[in-house]
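Problem 12. The chain below contains 591 residues. Write out its predicted structure in token notation.
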Amino acid sequence: MKGRERGQWVLKVEKQITNHPMELGLFPNAARYCRPPPPLSVADRRRRSNIVALNSSSSKVESEAGAGADVVVIGSGIGGLCCASLLARYEQDVLVVESHDRPGGAAHCFDVKNYKFDSGPSLFSGLQSRGPQANPLAQVLDALGESLPCATYDSWMVYIPEGEFLSRIGPTEFYKDLLNYAGPNAVQEWKKLLDAVLPLSTAAMALPPLSIRGDLGVLSTAAARYAPSLFKSFLQMGPQGALGATKLLRPFSEILDGLQLKDPFIRNWIDLLSFLLAGVKSDAILSAEMVYMFAEWYKPGCCLEYPIHGSAAIVDALVRGLEKFGGRISLQSHVDNIVVENDRAVGVKLRSGQFIRARKAVVSNASMWDTLKLLPGEVVPKSYSDRIKTTPQCESFMHLHLGFDAEGIRDDLGIHHIVVNDWKRGVDADQNVVLISVPSVLSPNLAPPGKHVLHAYMPGTEPFELWEGLDRRSAEYRNLKAERSEVMWRAVERALGPGFNREKCEVKLVGSPLTHERFLRRNRGTYGPAIQAGTNNAFPGHSTPIPQLYCCGDSTFPGIGVPAVAASGAIVANSLVSVSQHSQLLEAIGI
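Solution.
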């Protein structure tokens, strides 16, 4: 799920002290709200021994920074880290500059009272896959020689107006739920959909994202290299399937309409899956994304995965890979602007005043709106600026992070729960869909013994306008947080049952769109671009009108979600090296 991309939250000044690491790292008044961060683990100390603190006064640090790098990457989200680590693998001198005091962007974790919270994505699949059809993030980790131990499972709890049930992934498990809650016609329509969509996955997955680059070299690394497998997949699909494959870059709703799927439950369910995947419904999501997801979730033997040490384990693996190949990462290094000389991006200037030169390229992992703010206005073509300013945005988030005693909570509690209050309002309506993750049921080390850690959120449905201009220290802000988080509290109570008592929670953190905007450096706290498939407003590519400036992340092709941003970072890295280097990497990982 995206995933996309989310924050960590500062509570009002209560007796409860929250040890909020973002407050400590970047903001001078943080000490009023937080304890100092806990001591670094041995692994953290080992890793951070290679991390440059560019805002330090150390002469060693100054000399390293003064030397610059071949490529400077702004931001250490998954997209930025995939780009940087692959560049290091390609023997490029790469430096990542990160505003926060820890890497990961929306995928980082934070600790409060020994509870380890995910701030963002928690629903994963394909992390341990390998080969040409693997998850792009898994392909990057494979290229880096990094493993990612995961717990596996195959179901989540669903609470919908029709009732509640344990939904299992796989080719046939969903049929019984459809029969119970929608009837035999829905079963037939679902079978019809799987019969049409699963063969399309061969074409959708025939071209590994790691083979793509942003220049004519793609004819060698992708088109020529995988032409036989593409041709074979089209032959296997037959004329009708090949015709369907032409719709992969169209909205998924067109495939549904072409199959004459009309059952309301089916259409609502697919809208929900689309929204969880990319922040838009089936009439706006690329068919290729949904086809890929169906192949991951509804094929024989499929499973879902959760990293044993939380989503931070993904970030740690990427940072290990970066450093293994000589890359560097600088934390608490906020970029004030991208420096442009002779119409070319030549480096970045930090808030500290320090200039870091990029000899080859600057790559921004910030959103398109935030990247635009970093550029001198006079060097940006009006057409480029206008396109960014007029690109629609997904709404923002509400988050609830809880730490509580497991006593009284049922032993068979699952990790994921989805609550839909009203289908008629639409899955993209505010205060309607709540996602709940209790990762300590699979990874007990994320909470103290006998405790659970929980993250509930409303994904990309919270209007920023309700919060705009509010003083975060005001009673009005606190009251609005209490009001707008109540639907999450009720969803948690429904999912956890009568043994849960909100008053007994040891940690309670509520995050708002203002939290997103402030701590994740997200323009208006947005989830990302609300770009509709099949329109002229497609996801941008990775180059920009400013020579030597590239972008990766959820503002670029292929879009929102963990696999998508990993692919975007890989595409930029590939574009900055020779075709022969790129081809050698593909050979090395067997794709």
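Discussion. Residues 396-525 form a domain with the Guanine Nucleotide Dissociation Inhibitor; domain 2 fold (CATH 3.30.519). Students who got a different answer should revisit the alignment rule from Section 12.3.
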